[in-house]
Amino acid sequence: MLNMTKKIAFVLLFISGAVFTGCSSDEKENENVVVDTATLKTFKDVTFSLDAEEGFDAGRFFSTETGKSYKKAQIDAATLPKIDIAFYGGSFSLNFFTTPNDAEYGIAKGTTTDFINDIKDQFTIDKFNKLEKGEDLNGLTITNDGNSFPDSKLPLVVLFKNAAGKKGVIYVKSVHRVGSNPRIVTDIKIQK
Q1: In which element (H, E) is residue 150 found?
Q2: Distances in whole angstroms, Cα of residue 183 to Cα of each of 2, 101, 154
Q3: Which of 62, 89, 146, 179 is most buried, by the most CB atoms less than 10 A from its CB?
Q4: Average of pLDDT values for 170-187?
Q5: DSSP count for the chain of H helices, then E strands
Q6: 68 pairs with which residues across the strands?
Q7: Which pLDDT tens digit goes with each residue over 62-106?
Q8: What is the DSSP track for 3-68?
Q9: Contact yes or no for 93/147 (Cβ under 8 A)
Q10: Is 122 within 8 Å of 132 (Cβ atoms)?
Q11: Signal peptide location in the record (predicted)?
């Protein structure tokens, strides 16, 4: 009977340890879910801060190379050339993606990326959802439009071409201005 009690105690201890270990990692990495196909990378639920001071969880910069979001203070000399998306959300009526080397909203010596924030009918959310091959973006002409978009236009898509010549699409799914961590939530697809 004593032997059986020891076995039960051991099993319970093992289960408790497994549960404790599985629940102890509450750290949230600043990485996004990446779906990697042969010619297209997809990033799901990437957030960009609507707070210019980046005082909450989300940052204003993203690297399609590393698949991570960054706050300006987190960007060092090694990370800087990998940042290819910057975002500015000034108000309900003024949101835009901009080149990381933007003199006012970017980072000195950052890379250059062109954005079309107001694409009209050139690309749709339906096309974004069906996009599976990087080659399908080859025919797009992407030059910086200098436009912005209001919260009321969401959801929408934004086109971009980074310094390496890779073209991509950002699907801006939602905006969250009320409460803590003001942010927009996006999915991103870019050519490999």
Answers
A1: none
A2: 59, 21, 13
A3: 62
A4: 92
A5: 2, 10
A6: 31, 63
A7: 999 999 999 999 999 999 999 999 999 988 899 999 999 999 999
A8: HHHHHHHHHHHHHHHHHHHHHS-----SB-EEEE-SSEEEEEEEEEES-TT--SS--SEEETTTTE
A9: no
A10: no
A11: 1-21
Length of the chain: 192
Q: Could you list the beta-strand ranges (E) of 99-138.
A: 114-116
Backbone conformation region of residue 181, classed left if phi is above 0, alpha if psi is from -120 to 50, else beta = left
- Position of tokens 């750290």? 27
> Given the structure tokens 């973006």, which residue do they identify?
137
What are the domain boundaries of the chain?
A: 31-191
- Could you tell me the two tokens for 50? 């609507």
Mean pLDDT rounded to a whole number for the chain: 85
How far is residue 162's CA from residue 149's CA, in Å, rounded to a whole number?
20
Structure tokens at 10: 């051991």
The helix (run of H) or strand (run of E) holding residue 128 is helix 125-130
Residues 140, 158 contacting (CB under 8 angstroms): no
Residue type, 11: V
